Automatic annotation (TrEMBL):
Family of the protein in this entry: Belongs to the PRA-PH family.
Keyword annotations from UniProtKB, A to Z: Amino-acid biosynthesis, ATP-binding, Cytoplasm, Histidine biosynthesis, Hydrolase, Nucleotide-binding
Record EC number: 3.6.1.31
Known catalytic reactions: 1-(5-phospho-beta-D-ribosyl)-ATP + H2O = 1-(5-phospho-beta-D-ribosyl)-5'-AMP + diphosphate + H(+)
Protein name as catalogued: Phosphoribosyl-ATP pyrophosphatase
PANTHER family cross-referenced by the UniProt entry: HISTIDINE BIOSYNTHESIS BIFUNCTIONAL PROTEIN, HISTIDINE BIOSYNTHESIS BIFUNCTIONAL PROTEIN HIS7
Naturally occurring in which organism (per UniProt): Aureimonas jatrophae
Lineage summary: Bacteria, Pseudomonadati, Pseudomonadota, Alphaproteobacteria, Hyphomicrobiales
This protein's pathway: Amino-acid biosynthesis; L-histidine biosynthesis; L-histidine from 5-phospho-alpha-D-ribose 1-diphosphate: step 2/9
Chief location category: cytoplasm
Amino acid sequence: MSTHGFTLTSLERIVAQRAASGDDGSYTAKLVARGTLYAARKLGEEAVELVVAAIAEDEAALTGEAADLLYHLLVVLRLRDVPLSAVLAELERRTAQTGLQEKASRVPDAG
Ligand SMILES: N=c1c2ncn([C@@H]3O[C@H](COP(=O)(O)OP(=O)(O)OP(=O)(O)O)[C@@H](O)[C@H]3O)c2ncn1[C@@H]1O[C@H](COP(=O)(O)O)[C@@H](O)[C@H]1O
């Protein structure tokens, strides 16, 4: 496996550039032009496809669907002006406690 230092931050940069390009040949630009509702719906579809691949125990499909999901997540974050660094900072903050401790610290749902 070779990633040559490619990270989600690298992809975030590409997504930002393509989103701003208005290029007819860019899927990212097309997605962004259709707005958050459409892009978020695509993200949901990709999540469902990932769940199907996970249940099917098909590692190749799961890898592809995970890539689709992460790409679409970055597009939605871009549309809502949430930098990946904010998500990573939140994940880093959570490393201070276990998942169950974090769950217990959440404000309970009203009603
Ligand atoms: N990582 C991705 C990536 N992953 C998935 N996809 C696209 O996401 C789409 C999802 O497929 P679907 O079948 O669900 O959707 P679709 O039927 O093609 O689209 P709709 O007509 O339903 O909207 C496909 O068109 C994929 O090509 C991606 N498109 C772009 N990237 C990255 O973004 C970069 C810039 O891409 P452009 O913006 O197209 O230049 C690329 O070089 C890649 O690095």
